[in-house]
Amino acid sequence: MASLFLITLLVDFGLQIVFGVLSIVLKSEKFYDLIGGLAHILCALLGLFYTWGVPDGISLEAKLIQALCICFWAGKLGGFLLYRVIKSGGDKRFDEAKKNPIKLMLFWMMQGLWVYINILPSLFMWQTSIMKLNFVTIIGWVVFLFGLAFESVADYQKTAFRNKPENKGKFITSGLWSISRHPNYFGEIVLWYGLFFSAAPYFSSQWAYFTFLCPTATALHICFISGIPTLEKSGMARWGDDQGYARYVYSTGVLVPWLVCCECTPLPSRELLVDEEEIPKTSFFEDENKNDLVDVDLEDNNV
User: What's the pLDDT score for residue 263?
Assistant: First the structure.
């Protein structure tokens, strides 16, 4: 039987190449996210059926639930992103890439890599012969469900906010967006860590534990490459001089709910946090050597 890792790799990147070429010909990116979801689903089904019917009574319950988790998430996210792209008329990420076939194909190859990284821990689970359902696996699925719910609610809240005409040009600060500036990304990171922990008890190779780096790579990509940096830059361009936006940014964590620290993106000026009438023009400091009061201009001292 051919290696499950090789089969899923070929299917994953085969899809990206075929639809990448189609995307170049049509100069359209509208089905990009849909194919990303489809690749997850096909790889999950291949992993599930890889050991289907194998003798020796190998249990399939855990493998089935793991595959269903991935399929449900991929179907939900792929469908949601397709709806959003169709409604908005396009995806701004591809505005420049569509002018360059090589750059556009690179986007598709990166998606293939993203898909494979996401499913790699589960591939080690699906190719094992371990039979018993493990308690750690159940905990992992609970974490997955929490992350999935968090992501889904955040996406729904933002979509509902944007669909109201009176909110055009505004930024959302309600619901989960009041405790995190990117709650959907927080949920996505959490759910992939959950699927790693649900797969870990079935690892039959020590090398498999290195797949902990897979959800970590997803988290780093979202936090530092594509995701949060792109949206934060866009937010600064649109509302960087807005006092309300400045107060929202400084009072709301960028990713983890309620954690207001570890900022690694451009921030609005802190001067926006205080109303002009509340800023004193001068301050007085007592000279240590004299009993005189010295008038000091705040601007000269960068206070």
Answer: 66
